[in-house]
Amino acid sequence: MENKIQVPSHLAGIEKIYVDRSMVEAPLTERVTGRIPHIPVEVVDPENFPHEALGEGQSLYLKEYKGKFLKFCPGTRYYHCCGYRIIHIGENCPMACSYCILQAYFHDKVLKVWANQEDLFDELGKSFSVDRDARFRVGTGEYTDSLALEAVTGYSRDLVKFLGDYPNVCLELKSKVIDLSWMDVVKRTDRILPAWSLNAPFVNEHEEFGVSTLKERLEAAKICADAGFKVCLHFDPMIRFDGWREGYAEIVDMIFDYLKPENIAYLSIGSFRHMPHLKPIIERNFPETTYIYDEFIIGNDNKMRLLRPLRVRQFKFIVDRLRKHGMDKQMYFCMESTENWQDVFGYTPKDLGGLGKHLMKQAFGD
Ligand code: SF4
Prior knowledge:
The protein is α/β, with parallel strands linked by helices. The protein has helices spanning 27-35, 102-105, 117-129, 150-153, 155-163, 201-207, 214-226, 244-258, 278-285, 308-324, 338-345, 355-364; strands at 14-20, 41-44, 58-63, 70-72, 85-87, 90-91, 96-97, 111-114, 136-139, 169-175, 192-197, 208-209, 231-238, 264-271, 273-274, 296-298, 304-306, 331-333.
């Protein structure tokens, strides 16, 4: 039986655990219910999940997932996508960032965790061993935060342990919380990439709730770097607000109080972009938020993005600042055009041999 844990503050809102009838005996269910034994548990049949009974509090749903666990990132053919693969471990996030795309992806806020881990490991094992020379850059932080639920699920730790047998796979753990409990099971530090999103202090203070501070993230990144890991950083989304230059300069400078450029495998930069229907959701969930009224156009992928000159101005500013600290080819754009690459970096993904291939090399330390 798992020991009860001290629940971290970002999980303090969980009031109920739902478990699929087929998952009652799953090891993950035993672990979660052992770690937070004070939370009431209800066994459900998935077709009768009691959506209407959900209150204001958060619910955790240990579910049997029937789909594919290994997916392609939903990039588009119009912009340069980084070609990374998603290991789907669950959906939704207990934190609240005003810009979070998950608000538009999912119709409820239930924290879903795929409890049939055996099926997940079975599928991954098959996929990763077909050709041991084929390399995979994978991550779990697409439909959820990689580590937000780690204290109660231990999911990433299990995954890290499992991937120890697959040196052809490099796993990125992307998060806005600090949880380093997976570190002691790492076989090869060069196959795990701890990753944190960063933003201007103003954005962290006004648009991100329940998350760690920027200082905490960088302190954790330093612990990882000192332990021999390379880390990844993500400036996504960059947002315009009064004083954005000072704000982004401050956080860029702060990075190098903790890390050296060679500690960073890669660093992505992306401008705030959204499906049109996310805007009213943000208005409703975060009525204080103002950046959604900036000057946007609809891009080729039907997402709203900041007018090109405004985006490029911000990109140039942050890239220049990062370059002054010694950052170079490990910087890349998430979903931008060839023109913007050329204008800001002075080269295109093609010059790097293709973005996917380039990042694969950065991840594997070639
Ligand atoms: S931490 Fe990430 S996944 Fe969670 S609310 Fe913020 S942006 Fe969304």
